[in-house]
Write a structure and sequence with these properties.
mainly alpha; globular; 14 helices
């Protein structure tokens, strides 16, 4: 693709602030692709704090190049509009300067959103966003920065794996834009199993994924959902964890855990013994016991208020219908990993 564009007569040929910002980002990506791995080529990769590979840097370069080309086109159009707007202002009366100012403000807001999105994809946050996530979560600034980098690593690796699969299988088509979507369910499930020691059946795994980010049920997890969700998952208060577990167990999202939902959850979690003639009868007995413990208003189903009151009285009932929170060992291990990630990871060539 030819990215060169002629500049309209009277337009400036110098780079804008926005383009300079992305040129700096491009230089950083070249450093990652060209020499960022020199200091680590001798060691073995392990855990989440692994240095980004060169293909990840190439992907960033491609994204930056595409944006710079579109930025030049947008800049040229903006200059044309500004010039024509100025001509109309001189020819007529009233409203011209105000319209130009409003147009400038809209362009500034749009550019800020683009920059914020590019920062998100590269595991970076500007200071204001960093402070906002620190206030909204139980994480420190260092932990928020580390989570951003892990997010970017997971998304980039998933994209590379998808493209490799498509290259090796003629019938498979790589999903367009998969690197910008977020963490999909397959990556998330593997994370739950290998990193957080959650060993449970398929239905509950799917429910944890769907309940992770309110308002985005079943969609790839965005950076914001990743950080806020892990705050509850790893460091949440009793009230936060209670609300999360209830969302997981409320299979149809109607605000109640019914007997049928209890049966489905418990039946899938229990291991059937060959000697049992009717294992469902044992599950039904467990449902009745759970209902007696959790149904505080005795209406035959468990509302969120019922669940809150029951957990307040007996915290061990929090995961009554299956594991949906990490083990203590996994929590300590993951938080230690966040502290171990260097501030400037992944490294850049100097």
């Amino acid at each position: 693709m030819n990215r060169s564009r002629s500049v309209p007569p009277g337009g400036s040929t110098g780079p804008t602030k926005l383009q300079l910002s992305f040129q700096k980002l491009a230089i950083g990506a070249v450093a990652v692709a060209g020499g960022g791995s020199k200091g680590h080529s001798g060691g073995k990769g392990g855990g989440l704090a692994t240095v980004l590979n060169t293909r990840g840097g190439a992907m960033i370069m491609k994204s930056v190049s595409i944006f710079l080309a579109s930025g030049r086109r947008a800049s040229a159009v903006s200059r044309d509009r500004s010039k024509s707007g100025g001509d109309r202002c001189c020819a007529g009366k009233g409203g011209g300067p105000d319209k130009d100012k409003e147009r400038g403000r809209r362009e500034s807001r749009r550019n800020k959103k683009i920059l914020a999105r590019m920062d998100e994809l590269n595991g970076k946050l500007n200071p204001k966003m960093l402070e906002m996530y620190k206030r909204r979560t139980h994480f420190s600034k260092i932990e928020v920065e580390a989570l951003c980098k892990i997010f970017r690593k997971l998304v980039t690796n998933a994209s590379l794996n998808s493209k490799a699969l498509a290259a090796n299988n003629a019938g498979v088509i790589a999903k367009a834009g998969s690197s910008t979507d977020g963490i999909d369910r397959s990556v998330f499930r593997e994370l739950l199993h290998s990193t957080f020691d959650i060993v449970t059946e398929e239905t509950l795994m799917e429910r944890i994924f769907c309940a992770w980010e309110k308002g985005y049920e079943g969609l790839p997890i965005r950076l914001e959902g990743w950080i806020l969700g892990l705050s509850t998952f790893l460091k949440g208060s009793q009230a936060e964890k209670t609300a999360f577990c209830f969302r997981v167990y409320d299979l149809n999202g109607d605000g109640h855990i019914t007997k049928d939902e209890m049966f489905a959850l418990l039946r899938n979690c229990l291991i059937k013994q060959p000697q049992e003639e009717d294992p469902d009868e044992g599950v039904k007995d467990l449902v009745e016991i759970a209902l007696r413990k959790l149904d505080m208003d005795k209406d035959g189903k468990v509302s969120f208020q019922d669940y809150q009151e029951a957990i307040a009285e007996e915290p061990l009932l929090l995961e009554a219908f299956g594991q949906c929170l990490p083990s203590d060992r996994a929590t300590v291990s993951f938080l230690s990993t966040l502290q171990a990630i260097p501030p400037h990871w992944p490294p850049h060539k100097t």
